[in-house]
Amino acid sequence: MYKETIDRERMPRHVAIIMDGNGRWAKSHGLARMFGHRQGVETVHRITEAAAELGIRYLTLYAFSTENWNRPQQEVDALMELLVDTIAKETETLMKNNVRLLTIGDLNRLPQKAQDKFRRCMEQTAGNTGLRLVIALSYSARWEIIRAARKLAEEVQSGTLRVEDIDETTVSEHLTTSGIPDPDLLIRTSGEQRISNFLLWQAAYSELYFTPCLWPDFTVDEFYKALIDYQGRERRFGKTSEQLNTNKG
Length: 249
Ligand code: IPE
Ligand code: IPE
Ligand code: MG
Fold this sequence. Notes:
By secondary structure, this protein is α/β, with parallel strands linked by helices. It has helices spanning about 1-5, 20-30, 35-55, 75-95, 110-125, 140-160, 170-175, 220-230, 240-249; strands at about 15-20, 60-65, 100-105, 130-140, 185-190, 205-210. The longest helix has 24 residues, at about 75-95. The protein is globular, with a radius of gyration of 19 Å. The protein starts with a helix and ends with a helix. The structure holds 3-methylbut-3-enyl trihydrogen diphosphate (2 copies) and magnesium ion. The site of one 3-methylbut-3-enyl trihydrogen diphosphate has 11 residues, from strand 2.
């Protein structure tokens, strides 16, 4: 029903999602948190397929934040194992749907096995021309901005960059999202209304969509609803509504 309402001419180029609520989903079913994470992988599978089918160019999923390293060790270990299993299981689906896998974040902090799996999958899917699925792993915006500031400082110090040449483009190019357009739509599930250190620079003009739905319960229809909501908004980028409408005519 929702699918037919989507305007294929006004699709967001990049959708980013803060996949939240796995733990609460498990708790509400009387299960351990890991069951929620496992169920969350099913949602990743169906939303990726739906996004690919709709012709969305970029889908970024916040899978593990820098701050998530501070969770109980048992949960961290189990999540890392789940990542490894998921990549092994899902690579075939990515190939089938012509999806290219990319990652952002501090991949080097992941256990070696997880790093290897992700790198192999990125190589294997490098030739795919459909959806770019960007997984944020050990990612946080502040980590990324510090890293960019250091790189810029180093370039200035070594004489390859002039201070006055640092602009929005230079900064963007030094972030881990370099080459990826800014998200048009940023979705967060589970009812929390915060950014939690995700894409702070890139989301400057993203449309925000919050839903109480927990990530394991987030259906394809819920995804379509978010897209329809996005399509009903006027993105002004600091201009007036009149300016935008004159430009259209
Ligand atoms: C999101 O679900 C997944 C990760 C952060 C890894 P949570 O694990 O944060 O679930 P809640 O917020 O505790 O319900
Ligand atoms: C944000 O969720 C990070 C991911 C979805 C990977 P959290 O559950 O970690 O965020 P907070 O703690 O509620 O802000
Ligand atoms: Mg959470």
